Amino acid sequence: MKIGKQSLEFKDIYLNYSATIVGSLEGEGPLNEYFDEIVHDNYLGCSSFEQAEMLLQTKCLKKLLAKAKLNDSEIDLLIGGDLINQTAISNYVGRNFDIPFLGIYGACSTIALGIITGAIAIESNNYDKVIAITSSHNCSAERQFRNPVEYGGAKSETTTFTVTGAASTLLSRKRSKVMLSKATLGKIIDVGFKNQTDMGRAMAPAAVETIISHFTDFNSKPSDYDLILTGDLSLFGYEIVKDVLKEKYQIFNYNDCGLLIYDANKQNVFAGGSGCACCGCVTLSYIIHELEVGNLHKVLICATGALLNPSMCLQHESIPAIAHAIVLKRCLD
User: Fold this and answer.
1) DSSP string over 16-56
2) pLDDT above 90 (res 318)
3) Are 137 and 149 in contact (CB under 8 A)?
4) Alpha-carbon distance 133 to 129, whole Å?
């Protein structure tokens, strides 16, 4: 049901199972115990980083199906996206499964967009079991958006480190411990920011817009949530959002996935994590676990994405950004 201008409220939409796979650096971070699998080879035995990312996403999807004890033919819809041109990773993965496929692009907000799209599909009563999946790979993303890692170029302090990993979840009306209760679709926000090495500050205004719109549409406030979590704003973008929310709402229960997945004091990750797998792997491992065991009861997750294109940036265009929010809620037995 549509609420206000940008939001939706869902009834009986559950996250039944989730699966996450990450790379070695992510596996050395503070959330390592929550991931299903940690791989220690950036190539995963493949001949390119793109093929490695395809294998990451494939393994993640197979792991999810195994958890759910389902065959791919029993899934009604697969919704997937990634960072590589024309969502190539997800397209190439989808060709190997007997599932109708819907490719999406929300940059680093893709997991939230996929979950929202899946919930809408289920509420239409045309679909029963829907999977949302996404992935990113540090080396394939660097080749796409910056310079190949082999180039060895210097990084600025505002640069984020693309997470290597894949995340997936199965949505249905079958009751489980975690439900999707609400969502807010973001608007494209462009404040004229052009620095490709500072995605956090480019995306921060979009996160602020979506969070405030969410509170407005639902007549809610930060204290209604145990935690408010943004996608991958980096240390610099996080500070912007924190200052705005603190001034407007006196908010303190706020954090960012890019700051949770790594230990910036011990790991060389510059301003924190980014990439489709950043919000996806944090949400579908750590946050799901905390909801299932009762340490959290209601979480607002605002996944952010910079909708830049390398060609447009070479033409000196600014960077449009988006943020989509979902509310995950613990269900009592």
Assistant:
1) EEEEEEE-HHHHTSTTGGG-SEE---TTTTSSSHHHHHHHH
2) yes
3) no
4) 13
pTM of structure? 0.96
Q: What share of the chain is helix, strand, coil (3-state, %, to 5)?
A: 40, 25, 35
pLDDT class of 245 with cuts at 50, 70, 90: very high
Q: Are strands 161-162 and 130-136 parallel, antiparallel or unpaired?
A: unpaired
Buried-state track 32-46, b at ≥16 Cβ within 10 A, e below 16: eebbbebbeebebee
What local confidence, expressed as pLDDT, does residue 151 receive?
44
CA 167 centroid distance within chain = 8
Structure-block tokens of residue 132: 């949302």
User: Tell me: the pLDDT tens digits for 154-187?
Assistant: 556 777 889 999 999 999 999 999 999 999 999 9
Q: Which residues of 193-224 are buried (b: 16+ CB within 10 A; e: fewer)?
A: beebebbbbbbbbbbbbbbebbbebbeeebee
**Mind giving me the DSSP string for 202-245?**
HHHHHHHHHHHHHHHHHT--GGGSSEEEESS-HHHHHHHHHHHH
Over the chain, what is the mean pLDDT?
A: 93
Q: What is the pLDDT of residues 53-68, one digit of tens each?
A: 999 999 999 999 999 9
Rounded alpha-carbon distances, angstroms, from residue 29 to 50, 163, 164, 179, 315: 23, 11, 12, 27, 37
Backbone phi, psi, residue 256, to 5°: -135, 135
**304 and 199 Cβ atoms separated by less than 8 Å:** no
Distance CA 295, CA 327 (A): 16
